[in-house]
Design brief:
about 30% helix; elongated; alpha+beta; four-stranded antiparallel beta sheet; 4 helices
Length: about 190
C-alpha cells in the first residue's frame, strides 16, 4: 500500500483482528447472559455451537415461520416471494431496507439448489447511499427424488457467519445485521487505501 510500511500494515491488521475478537467475545458472553463483572467459568472455545444460546434466547419469544412451497410448486420467482414473506415475520426497525436478488442455481446429484441474496442497509437523508450493507444468503433446495408434495428445504446464513439457520429453528436478531455493518465500517476505517 502506498505510504504504509509493511510493519504498519501488519500492526493495523493485528489491531483489527483484536477488535473483531473482542467484539465477538462480548457478543457470546452477552448471549450467554453473563454479567460483565461475572467471571466466565469456562473458556469461550468450549462453546461448540449456538444451540444452547438460541434455545435460551427464544424461551420468551415465538419463533416465526411460514408455509414453504411444495417441490412441485417451486419456481425461482415464487421462491423469492416466499423469502420476502418469511423476512416479513422478522422483527426489525422500520429504517432497514432490503432487496432480494436471485443469484444462481446449482445442480447436485439429488437436488437443485437455488441461491438468493437479501441485502440490508439503513439509508438516511444525509447518506442515502449507505457506507456498508449486510447480506443474508438463502438456499432453497428442491429434491429430485422426493415426491412433489414434499416441502422444499430452506436454510440461510448471515454474511461473515458460518452458522446455518433454518426457518422456524432460530429467532432473527437485528443485532446480527448491525454487527456485520459495524465490522465493515471499522475495517474501512482501519485499512487505508
Amino acid at each position: 500500500m502506498p505510504g504504509l510500511h509493511e510493519g504498519e500494515v501488519e500492526l493495523q491488521a493485528h489491531e483489527l483482528i483484536d477488535q473483531v475478537i473482542s467484539n465477538a467475545r462480548k457478543r457470546v458472553v452477552s448471549d450467554l447472559g453473563i454479567a460483565d463483572d461475572e467471571p466466565f467459568s469456562r473458556p469461550l472455545s468450549s462453546v461448540k455451537s449456538y444451540d444452547g444460546i438460541l434455545g435460551r434466547e427464544t424461551e420468551d419469544h415465538e419463533i416465526s415461520n411460514i408455509d414453504w412451497l411444495k417441490i412441485e410448486e417451486f419456481t425461482v420467482e415464487r421462491g423469492k416471494e416466499k423469502i420476502e414473506e418469511f423476512i416479513n415475520t422478522w422483527e426489525y426497525e422500520e429504517a432497514w431496507l432490503h432487496c432480494i436478488d436471485f443469484l444462481r442455481e446449482e445442480e447436485d446429484k439429488y437436488s437443485m439448489k437455488y441461491r438468493y441474496q437479501v441485502r440490508w442497509s439503513i439509508p438516511t437523508r444525509r447518506k442515502p447511499i449507505p457506507r456498508a450493507t449486510a447480506s443474508v444468503y438463502f438456499t432453497i433446495e428442491v429434491s429430485k427424488i422426493k415426491p412433489g408434495s414434499y416441502p422444499v428445504e430452506v436454510y440461510y446464513v448471515f454474511e461473515t457467519n458460518s452458522l446455518v439457520h433454518r426457518p422456524g429453528a432460530s429467532r432473527f436478531r437485528e443485532i446480527w445485521l448491525k454487527n456485520i455493518i459495524e465490522n465493515k465500517i471499522m475495517m474501512m476505517e482501519v485499512a487505508k487505501f
